[in-house]
Records
---
Amino acid sequence: MAGGAVRVRTRVQWRDEMGRYAARVDEGAEEAQRELSEIGATLARALAPRRRGILAGSIQSTGHGFATGALTYALPQEEGAGAHPIGEPGQVLGNREDEFGPVRGPVLHPGNPAVHFMRNALRLLKPRIMPTIRSNMP
């Protein structure tokens, strides 16, 4: 009877230790994810085109990755854009930074090459993933 009690205690102790270990692994994985998300956002902001800073300023950590809130602007910067009309008929357009305008729209925007700031941020982040995970594990 005493042997049975010891065996039950051993199993309970093992189960409790494994439960604590599993919980710590989960916490470590979440912390690694948060850290990598912040690093990725920082890298993407640094690599983003800096015309007015709107795009870089919109890049945030989501806690499980990083994203931009300026999607209609970010995608043509990330993937590039061909020539396209901008503005409505009769709309007054101008850009002080480029000393362009004022003119009445629509005008033909020449497009822009791909910058790949998000993709390059992820590429720079990849070598840090496993070390960050390992540093947060029990």
---
Amino acid sequence: MSDPGKDDPFQVGDKVRVKALAHLVGTVTEVRGTHPRATRILYRVRVPMDPEPLWLEVRADEVEKA
């Protein structure tokens, strides 16, 4: 059995860009593993905004390196 975090493309602290909203750049705050109904990795991303940050939960295929 492989280590679940070993093959993740992004790790906590990595800067990522949300593909659908190309102007949003945030930081990965949590790697949530695979969704129960799918075999995708989910990331919790914090996008700094004013007055409060935007928190997103996105699939691995929806983000790219910033």
---
Amino acid sequence: MIERDALSGSPRELVQQLNTLARTRTSGKDSGVTVSFAPDVDQDCRSMTIATAGKSLGYVLRHICNSCGLVIREAGTNVVIFLPSLPEQETKNLESHVPAGLPKLCAQFRELTGENRYAVADQMSPFLPRCPKTWEKDIGTGVLTGYDYKNPSYVLYKRDVLKLLGTPDRHSNNRKWYYILEPSSSMRRELCITFHEHDYAVSSAVTGSVDENQKPNNGMQADVRSSRH
């Protein structure tokens, strides 16, 4: 059981703390459970605080994984945190299911992989799924907004997105997929498809930020294979 009241940090930081807490001294050697991440996991996807007093290591690990869309594999005293396999859902007759004109724009988008495709993404984004707004509240420093994620304008599964847009350039534990739009620009513009915990897209946006020295994002490349581990 963990005696500390709470642990805070990114998944990476939380696991480092858990490994320290789980370590014991036996005959001068470290022993106990060791937790690690698979290489394709985004370990810095978010920050969280978990109430841990009296909780087990397993409880805290499950909390981390449930919050970040991850799964646990145990092998003796070694625990590895993986991405789950992509769900099997996909839409039959996909081109007739999506808004008219979207398949053609998506084909252009795929053909421009590795080139400037900002203009195509800007045209394409309004045709991608949206969820209705349910509430809005101005808190002074900004506006909080709620959405009905159970009722998107139409259902577009992860496998559907792969067929339409191709493999993303990076992702955040398959809850957000990012497609680079201007590879040679210092302004890193991307098309972001958001899923959250759902297997279908709930929103999309064209985003942009200054890319310092055009360095890669944590060295993480997208891994969206149909089965893994």
